[in-house]
Amino acid sequence: MTLHSVTFQRGRRVILDDLTWSLPATGRTLLLGRNGAGKTTTLRLLSGAIAPKRGTVKIDGHDAGPKELRRRVAMMPQHISSMPRLNVVEQVAFAAWLSGRSESSARSAAVKAIAQVDLSEKGQMDPARLSGGELRRVGLAEALARPSELLLLDEPTAGLDPTQRARFRDVVLSLDRPTVISTHQLDDVDQLVASVVVLDGGRIVFDGPVDDFLRRGQGPDVARMAESAFTSLTSTL
């Protein structure tokens, strides 16, 4: 999948400026950028939720419209909401059904996805009664239950405590499809992803293996090295 010469703006503000990015066909990729750099916009373009002002999103060399992108790409948004009058299984199944699965297939996919995120025992509960960490796992299950080829995770560990982040990380490490993760949590980044992309000023300023990214920074541990590398690339003070 490729974003080709994509420009996106909101009002007069240009968020992405003639951006071209070919996503890795396998593995996990970390998408970094300062607040407002366009990370969520990039993910939403890839998912078909919004369309570029100029440029195209391509799959296998051909232009892909919103309908095809919604079918082939699943996105976990930053904010997860519980749906009234539905239990956990029903909420995840509904998301799968919206993506094009039949009713029976959606329920089967929901049960499997809920097991993947270790929430089977909460399947009959009202999502509104879950903890913040559990609700985020419901959001991940919704994405996993969709019949997609690419998974996009937008700040998946935002608001989670260290224990919840560790559990979520273990789930992400078990995923078997190409995944793009936008996050500010840089602990164990060398174990979580294979490649890193950094956005700044509406453009990509780094796109390469995680080891090359970390070599641009300094520090006593991986998190500090990653922060230092990010600062050197974006001139963050």
Automatic annotation (TrEMBL):
<keyword id="KW-0067">ATP-binding</keyword>
<feature type="domain" description="ABC transporter">
    <location>
        <begin position="1"/>
        <end position="226"/>
    </location>
</feature>
<dbReference type="GO" id="GO:0016887">
    <property type="term" value="F:ATP hydrolysis activity"/>
</dbReference>
<keyword id="KW-0813">Transport</keyword>
<dbReference type="InterPro" id="IPR003439">
    <property type="entry name" value="ABC_transporter-like_ATP-bd"/>
</dbReference>
<keyword id="KW-0547">Nucleotide-binding</keyword>
<dbReference type="GO" id="GO:0005524">
    <property type="term" value="F:ATP binding"/>
</dbReference>
<comment type="similarity">
    <text>Belongs to the ABC transporter superfamily.</text>
</comment>
<dbReference type="Pfam" id="PF00005">
    <property type="entry name" value="ABC_tran"/>
</dbReference>
<dbReference type="InterPro" id="IPR003593">
    <property type="entry name" value="AAA+_ATPase"/>
</dbReference>
<dbReference type="InterPro" id="IPR027417">
    <property type="entry name" value="P-loop_NTPase"/>
</dbReference>
<protein>
    <submittedName>
        <fullName>ABC transporter related protein</fullName>
    </submittedName>
</protein>
<dbReference type="InterPro" id="IPR017871">
    <property type="entry name" value="ABC_transporter-like_CS"/>
</dbReference>
